[in-house]
């Protein structure tokens, strides 16, 4: 029996795919089709695949051409599959000519003529692009600007840069440099806001009132009631209001959460999170709790929930005109566990995340919020398990894909739950209302 194998993504299954599978089948007696897993596609740079792995497998299955369907999950798997399943012929479309010649050591390699005039990318780009306006300043704005180029379905239509010395960076980029937030809103379907946190509430409200979807750097507001009001407004106007914390979209972080939920390190009793960076502070600066608080709180709220019994906030504050929190520490007490965050823009420390359980602990090295690597460690050193996942664009790319998808489906698909966003705003509110222990640094 002659065994043939072929691989592909098969997103939005089309005539070109059908023809390829028909001809692959004719090459032998038994056809194996490898469908690429979402994570593996992301690593290869295909991050905007529209259909889920299950939907894509289902499309291949319904052709009735595959005798066996497998999932392609890692680099180098083709050689393993060919050897393990005793494959005679490997085949793919002519767009890959030469690329798989290295497999000739294991089986025949045949490139079939690609069907002209159709591709998944074409079908995807026919869907209308979301015109995104960017407002704010700083390095996050630049990162979003750069990352948006990698995401199908989103196009930056205009930008309102709030800091004069940053404007030149965006000139000559073929986009409208708006001179006010008002003109920005007139030139887009959705906005990404990364301005001063004190402006978030009014900017989100204006956008929602003008029928624009909003992605806003966390925290959404500095007040719990304002958060509820904005969420209600978004629902009433059928708009997406999504909170931006890029870490929530990083593959390694999500895999870590799944392992924790799968009780790989037992019951969790303690979480310690640290996020710091040294920055000068001026009137544009976000304070330490505003810039780092949401990221640091995320693992605690996602693992322990938001119903803590008690919290204590201690903050070292500058004695200048800004009363800037150089370093803030929050300790949480839950019914059965404890947690703490340490954040600071005026103090440097090791930016690690440690989740301690009854069987072992998870260790995510600095800077944990943009990690591609973590370890599960146990009593015996030799039991340590190491995990590595590719991280592209610090998670921003996947976040933009999620935002575009939410707009397309008309449905919130954020990875940060409503209660968590609300609890983050509550912490910000306590801070704003001076509900914390202030230690002045002279
Ligand atoms: N294929 C083909 N003719 C086309 C499109 C795809 O023969 N018009 C073949 C590819 O060469 C590959 C298989 O179908 O062997 C699966 O391709 P896949 O990458 O899933 O589809 P594309 O439409 O090429 O997707 P994209 O535009 O995302 O690259």
Overall number of strands: 20
So how many helices?
Answer: 14
CATH H-level superfamily title of the largest domain: Dihydrodipicolinate Reductase, domain 2
Attached small molecules: cytidine-5'-triphosphate
Specify the CATH class of the largest domain. Answer: Alpha Beta
In the predicted model, the low-confidence regions spanning at least 5 consecutive residues are none
Describe the structure.
The chain has 3 domains: 3-121, Rossmann fold (3-Layer(aba) Sandwich), CATH 3.40.50.620; 125-246, Rossmann fold, CATH 3.40.50; 248-412 and 420-441, 2-Layer Sandwich (Dihydrodipicolinate Reductase, domain 2), CATH 3.30.360. The strands form 3 sheets. Strands 19-18-17-16-12-15-14-13-20 form a 9-stranded mixed β-sheet, covered by helices on one side. It is globular, with a radius of gyration of 25 Å. It has helices at 15-26, 38-43, 53-63, 77-84, 120-126, 139-147, 167-170, 181-186, 197-209, 224-236, 251-261, 288-304, 396-409, 418-432; strands spanning 3-8, 30-36, 68-72, 89-93, 108-112, 130-136, 154-161, 176-177, 190-194, 213-217, 241-244, 268-276, 310-318, 325-333, 338-344, 353-357, 360-364, 373-378, 385-388, 437-441. The model has no long low-confidence stretch (mean pLDDT 92). Helix content is 33%, strand content 27%. It has 442 residues and is α/β, with parallel strands linked by helices. Cytidine-5'-triphosphate binds at residues 8-10, 16-17, 20, 46, 92-93, 95, 114-115, 118-121.
Give a quick precis of the structure.
The chain is an alpha/beta fold and 442 residues long.
């Amino acid at each position: 029996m002659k065994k043939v194998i072929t691989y592909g993504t098969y997103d939005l299954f089309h005539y070109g795919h059908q023809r390829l599978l028909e001809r692959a089948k004719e090459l032998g007696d038994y056809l194996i089709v490898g469908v690429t897993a979402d994570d593996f596609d992301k690593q290869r740079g295909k991050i905007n695949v529209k259909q889920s792995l299950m939907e894509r497998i289902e499309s291949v299955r319904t052709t009735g051409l595959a005798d066996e369907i497998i999932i392609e999950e890692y680099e180098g798997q083709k050689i393993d599959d060919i050897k393990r399943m005793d494959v005679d012929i490997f085949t793919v479309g002519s767009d890959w000519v030469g690329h798989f010649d290295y497999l000739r050591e294991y089986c025949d390699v045949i490139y079939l003529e690609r069907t002209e005039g159709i591709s998944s990318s074409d079908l995807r780009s026919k869907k209308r692009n979301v015109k995104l306006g960017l407002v704010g300043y700083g390095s996050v704005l630049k990162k979003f600007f750069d990352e948006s180029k990698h995401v199908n379905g989103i196009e930056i239509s205009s930008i309102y840069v709030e800091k004069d010395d940053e404007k030149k960076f965006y000139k000559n980029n073929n986009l409208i440099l708006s001179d006010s937030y008002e003109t920005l809103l007139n030139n887009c379907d959705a906005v990404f806001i990364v301005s001063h946190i004190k402006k978030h509430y009014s900017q989100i409200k204006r956008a929602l009132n003008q029928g624009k979807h909003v992605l806003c750097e966390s925290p959404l507001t500095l007040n719990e009631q304002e958060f509820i009001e904005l969420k209600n407004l978004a629902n009433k106007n059928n708009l997406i209001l999504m909170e931006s914390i890029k870490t929530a979209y990083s593959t390694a972080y999500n895999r870590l959460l799944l392992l924790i939920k799968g009780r790989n390190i037992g019951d969790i009793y303690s979480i310690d999170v640290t996020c710091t960076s040294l920055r000068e502070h001026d009137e544009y600066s976000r304070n330490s709790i505003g810039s780092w608080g949401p990221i640091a709180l995320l693992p605690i709220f996602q693992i322990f929930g938001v119903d803590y019994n008690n919290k204590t906030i201690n903050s070292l504050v500058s004695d200048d005109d800004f009363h800037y929190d150089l370093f803030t520490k929050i300790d949480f007490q839950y019914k059965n566990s404890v947690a703490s965050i340490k954040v600071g823009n005026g103090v440097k420390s090791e930016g690690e995340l440690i989740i301690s359980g009854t069987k072992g602990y998870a260790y995510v090295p600095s800077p944990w919020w943009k990690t591609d690597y973590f370890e599960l460690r146990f009593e015996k050193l030799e039991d340590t398990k190491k995990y590595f996942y590719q991280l592209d664009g610090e998670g921003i790319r996947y976040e933009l894909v999620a935002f575009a998808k939410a707009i397309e489906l008309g449905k919130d698909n954020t990875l940060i739950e409503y209660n968590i966003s609300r609890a983050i705003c509550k912490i910000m509110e306590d801070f704003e209302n001076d509900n914390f222990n202030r230690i002045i640094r002279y």
